[in-house]
Amino acid sequence: MPKQQSQKPGSPAKPGFFRYLGAIFYDFILVIAIFFVATAILLPFNQGEAIHSSFLFPLYLLTVSFLFYGWFWTHGGQTLGLRAWKIRLVNHEQNDISWKQAFIRYLTACAAWLAFGLGIVWRLWQKDSKTWQDLSSRSDIVLLDK
Length: 146
Prior knowledge:
By secondary structure, the chain is mainly alpha-helical. The protein contains six helices and two strands. Helix 1 (about 15-40) crosses helix 2 (about 55-75). The radius of gyration is 17 Å and the shape is elongated.
């Protein structure tokens, strides 16, 4: 079990790296299922096929996944994965993030993964254990009390 991240006095505890990855994996599985449903919704309107455009369909799926993450992040700060691993996304005042922060976080998270996960692993070298999306959106992932 990885040790818990160090923290400033008075600030909430940070989850360990593997707990954070566990939550990401849970949400990834859920988003794949949501993609199946989102695609199935389109089928009756397009003669039983997904969108033929190599631009529109990925944009549609990105929008669907942003709405999924954005809703949960702005309404309680927990997706199913975050809830299962007892962690929460908060702003610097320990409240839910705004839709603007959610959008910035989502775009930065996409870039972090497109850089072969460097933006996620970045947390291991950061003094405050922050990923690229934490830094860009001015938000934090915190460990909930047990």
